[in-house]
C-alpha cells in the first residue's frame, strides 16, 4: 500500500470523515510513536440544542506506544497556563474483575493509586478500584447513611463534608463529619458544623491544609427546605469550624474545585423551590482565599445540578454530567455533557461528553503524571435512578492509562 502524502499545516493535520451507513471509508485512526499519547484532538462537529447538551464525537484515538505526557507542568494555583485546544475524550472503563456498588448522591476520590467510591442513598460499602489491575473490591462502609456530599483526602483519611441521611424529600443533616481511615479500614467522626449551619449538597474542597464547605441546603428538597450560600472553614488540627462570608447566590446540589487560589463553585439549583428541577443556577461563583471575597463569573452553558466538579492538570474546572429539566425538556434527564471553565479568562471552552449520562457521583483525579479522571456509578436518569455500575474515564487523548 502506498504511503499517503501528508503535509501538516501550522502543526495541524485535518481529517474529514464522510458519514456512510456501512462499509466506512475510514474505520479508525491509530497514532503510534514517541509521545503519541500527547496528541491533542479537536472536533468541528456542529452543536445541537443546548437543552439536550449533546453532539457527536469522533472515535477516541488509540495510542499504541509511549506513556501519557502531561499537557503542562501541574500547578493548580498558577495563573498563566497553557490551555489545550482539545476537550479531551472519555472512555468506558473495562473491569478485569468485580464492579462498583451502584450508588448515587455519593462521592469519589483518588488516593495513593486507588479510586474510592463512597456513600450514597442507603447503607453502602466503600468500593475501591485499582486502575493498574482493573479490579474492584469492597471495604467497610460507614455506620450510617451518608449522601449528598463531596469528599476530600487528607493525611490517610477521607472526609465527607456536609452530608444528609434519610428519605427524599425530608433528608436530615448529620451533626458530625464522618471520616474514613484508609489504613485501618474504619470509620470515625470529627466535629460537625454548628447548629443552624449544618447542610448537605454543597461544595467541599481542601486548600493549604484547611477544608472549605460552601453552599448546600438545610432540610432536603422542596419548599420546606432552605438553600444557602454559606461558607465555612474547618481546621483539622484544631477540629474547629469557622464561618466565612456568604456567597452571592444560594444553591445546593452543587460542587466545587480549587483553581488559581480560588474556590470555584459550579452548577447547582435552588432546592427550596417548589419546582427545583427547573431552578438550575447558571453563574459560576469563586471565592478568593487571598482576599476573602466572592465574585460572580461566567454562566454554565447548560445549567444543571448534581454535577461532578474538579480541576484538570492544565488548570481548568471540569463540570461533568448532572441532572435537570429545561423549557424544552420537561421530562428531565441526566447529562453526559462535560464543560470546561477557564477561570483566568472567565470563559467556557468546547465541551466533551462522557460515554454515559450520570449525576450524583464524584470525580477521582489521578496525579498529573498519569493524567486520568474517573467518574464511577451515579444515576443515569433524573432523580433516583437507574443507579449504574459503569465508570467513565477522561484523559486529554482519550486513552485509558494503567497508572496512578
Automatic annotation (TrEMBL):
It comes from the Eukaryota. This is Kelch repeat-containing protein. Coiled coil: none annotated. SUPFAM superfamilies: Galactose oxidase, central domain. InterPro entries: Gal_Oxase/kelch_b-propeller, Kelch-typ_b-propeller, Kelch_1. It comes from Chondrus crispus (Carrageen Irish moss).
